[in-house]
Structure formats: structure tokens, C-alpha cells
Amino acid sequence: YRCKKKKEKKKKEEKEEEEEKEEEEEEEEEEEKKKKKKKKKKKKKKKKKKKKKKKKEEEEEEK
Fold first, then answer.
1. Rounded CA gap, 6 and 18, in Å?
2. Which domain holds residue 34?
3. What's the pTM?
């Protein structure tokens, strides 16, 4: 009886550990996604700046 309980307890602990690991991995993935999104946003901003600069140059040429 005691042996069986120990085994069950061990199984339960292992399962919990597995779940914790999975959760951590998911969190890491989320972090990665956020970082990527931030990088993308930065890139977009740069593009906008370039466009503005181009526009300014064109306007100056027209003058």
C-alpha cells in the first residue's frame, strides 16, 4: 500500500514538473514574440523616417 502511494506521489510530482517546464517554455516564446514585434515596430519607424526624408528632399528639389 505504502509503495503504491509513493509511486503515485512521484508520478504526480513528475507531471507537475512537466507542466511547469511547458509553462516556462510558453512564457519564453511569448517573450520572443514580443521582442520580435518590438523589433518590427522599430523597423517601421525607420522606414517612416526615410520616407519623410525623401519627401523633404523631393520638395526641396521642386523649389
1. 18
2. 1-63
3. 0.39
